[in-house]
Each structure stands twice: as structure tokens, then as C-alpha cells.
Amino acid sequence: MNNYTENIYPIFDRLLQKAAKEKLLKQRTKALWMTGLSGSGKSTIGQYLEARLHKDGYLSQMLDGDNIRSGLNNNLSFTASDRKENIRRIAEVSKLFVNCGIITLNCFISPTKEIRDYAKNIIGENDFLEIYINAPLEECEARDVKGLYKKARKGEIKNFTGLDSPYEAPQNPDLEIRTDQMTVEESADKIYEFILPHIKY
Length: 201
Hints:
Layout: H1 18-25, E1 31-35, H2 42-55, E2 60-64, H3 65-70, H4 80-99, E3 103-107, H5 113-123, E4 128-134, H6 137-143, H7 148-153, E5 175-178, H8 184-199
Parallel strand pairs: 1-3, 1-4, 2-3, 4-5
């Protein structure tokens, strides 16, 4: 088996460091990892949060599951190994944004503790905030904004998280948002107020 990395020599230590980018942007950077079932509100909250950050002068980048799957990771399936590779690539991209001083909003189901810890280890524990976007399965299925639960119930989608594939809820997230009890705006505002001390320069 070839070792494809034996002739690779990273120069990360010779590049401008994160602190210099944060000083330029006058903000501190974090990777927000928003996890939750399909339909819990991750992407919608992310959009509102991105707009709020922009309005207040903060530069952010949102990475969304469907966007990433349609581009960077369009060659990956939903097998366990491909799900892990999906998260690995996302985390590496998120790390690049964080190192550039940009607040990164990650909106991914990332259904297991193992896979979320995997992302945290890549990005770096000090730069990673886990936010649990919590809505009961019944609520997510009732919304079914993409029609995915309906397809999964018919057997048209296999290994669907929350139905025939498990979702492990975070036990100790940095923040939990109950989207069955708050509006999208209230949810985004709560996250904003939580992260403000972390990103204020």
C-alpha cells in the first residue's frame, strides 16, 4: 500500500497565524457545530444567525449539509464510512476558515458522539462550540420541509437518521436550543447572545 503523504511537507507553521487574521478582522473566531435531526431547524437558524452577525460587523461563513453534499462532497454516499469522510472534509474546511479568523457556522446532522468528537479533534477543542438544535422527532417529521421523512417511511431512503439509523443526542452541549419551544428568530438570537463573548475582539 502506497503512503501518499510521505512526500508532503505542510507549511502551516510558516503562514500568518490566526491571531493576525483576528486582529485584521477585529473579531475572534469560533466554529459553531450545530447538530440535530433533519428538520430541527439547523439551516434556517444558521441563515438568520449569519445575517445577524453580518449586520453587526462580523464575518462568518455557513457550511450547510445539502450545499456541501451538492459540491465538495457530491461523490459521497450515506454509508457509515462515507458519512465519516463527509464530516472529515467539512471539519478540515471549517478549520481553514477558523484559521483565517472567520466565524464558521456548521449545520450538519452529525448523528453520533463519535463523529462530532472527530470533527472537534480536527478543528481543535478551543475553537469548537457544540450547539444542539433540539426538536422531537415527531415535530421534525410533522414539519418534513424536504419530504424526506415521507420518503424514508415509504422505504425510498435507507439509513435515515432518527428512523432506521440512530441519532445520539449530545449529553453536554455548549448550548441547547429547543426549536419546538422558540421561533427561528428567538433561537438565532439566543445563539448570538451566547457566542458574543467568544467572538468579541
